[in-house]
Automatic annotation (TrEMBL):
Protein name as catalogued: TlpA disulfide reductase family protein
Domain Thioredoxin: 33-166
Predominant location: other
Swiss-Prot/TrEMBL keywords: Cytochrome c-type biogenesis, Disulfide bond, Membrane, Redox-active center, Signal-anchor, Transmembrane, Transmembrane helix
Organism: Anaerocellum danielii
Pfam families the UniProt entry points to: Redoxin
Cell compartment(s), UniProt: Cell envelope
Transmembrane stretches, start-end: 6-27
């Protein structure tokens, strides 16, 4: 009798785990599909005062990297993003700084040797439109401005190359 009871409890536990995994898979797939949509066409000013818009890059792949200077994983991935920018001129790389002042960002970029354009999302509106919940977050836009991939978290050079299809 005890043996049957143990078997029953084990069966229920395994069923609950499998059901949970199934629900997780369905939810994560539906979230991916929601994220893959047309890019929000925004206008932001870069640290050097130039205005940029996604529509400026129609016909080219674009990487958007949302970050902040105080974020340790953001700081750690910047050298790999710079290397990617220097070695892959066919892909546009835009950094988007979230809610920091221009001078803080400018000093940070100079200290890190960043040469790709970094835009200032001072009010956080563009970040909100992209649904940024954590940083760093990187999006890959195809030649038509559609979001085709999203990565939340730090990326290495090799991960970035694979992410961009290089």
């Amino acid at each position: 009798m005890l043996n049957n009871r143990i078997k029953s409890v084990i069966f229920i536990l395994i069923s609950a785990i499998l059901t949970g995994l199934l629900v997780y898979q369905i939810m994560s797939r539906s979230k991916e599909n929601v994220d893959l949509k047309s890019a929000v066409n925004f206008k932001l000013v870069s640290v050097d005062g130039k205005e940029y818009s996604i529509s400026d890059f129609k016909g080219r792949k674009v990487l958007l990297n949302f970050f902040a200077t105080w974020c340790p994983p953001c700081r750690a991935e910047i050298p790999d993003f710079e290397r990617f920018h220097r070695e892959n001129k066919d892909v546009v790389l835009l950094g988007i700084n979230i809610q920091e002042d221009k001078e803080t960002v400018k000093e940070f970029l100079n200290s890190m040797g960043v040469t790709y354009p970094v835009l200032l999302d001072r009010d956080g509106n563009v970040s909100a439109q992209f649904g940024i919940e954590g940083i760093p977050t990187t999006f890959l836009l195809d030649e038509n401005g559609r979001i085709v991939a999203k990565n939340v978290g730090m990326m290495t050079y090799e991960q970035l190359k694979k992410f961009a299809g290089k």
